[in-house]
Amino acid sequence: MNKFLLFTFILLISKPVFADNDEQALNEIVKSFETSIINKDKSKFMELFVEGTVSWVGVHTKTDYENELKWANSEAGIELKKKIGDKFREPAKYRHSSPEVFIDSIIDNTKQPKEEISNVKIVSDGEVAIIYFDYIFYDGKRKVNSGKENWQLINSGNGWKINAVNFSIARG
Question: Does the residue 30 lie in any domain?
Fold first, then answer.
């Protein structure tokens, strides 16, 4: 009986240590995300994600979406559509993408893009986690968009990996 109580006591005091280790590891993923964008480091960025398909969805705010619709139907929007044809991207409330498309656009950018992350909140049970935060995305020194972002992660057995990214988009 004493061995059982000792084991239970050790398990109870160890759980917060494991939780702290999870939170530390998850915070490191956030920092790696930011630095891999700044450093345009595709391999480091891609290591943050599960292998295979990752859900990556950006949702425009109602105001942004309405402004895009107005612009697309304006004289300038119609002219651009005629000029570039199939390459014209019709306004959409939300868009699917992928981590690879995102980091490739960062690498191809001649300016120094960065994403500032703040107000990070982490919820985890040791196997799955959610990271929720505010973000501001810059193209050089110019603020391009901001919003809320959340990631779903799994403990892969070889560390935490992001398997879904959802974010709101407010321009400017």
Answer: yes
CATH number at residue 56: 3.10.450.50
Average pLDDT over residues 51-56: 95
Q: What confidence score (pLDDT) does residue 88 get?
A: 82
Split at pLDDT 50, 70, 90, the class of 92 is very high
Mean pLDDT of the chain: 89
Residue 147 sits in which domain range? 22-61+95-171
pLDDT for residue 34 is more than 70: yes
**Cβ atoms of residues 153 and 147 within 8 Å:** no
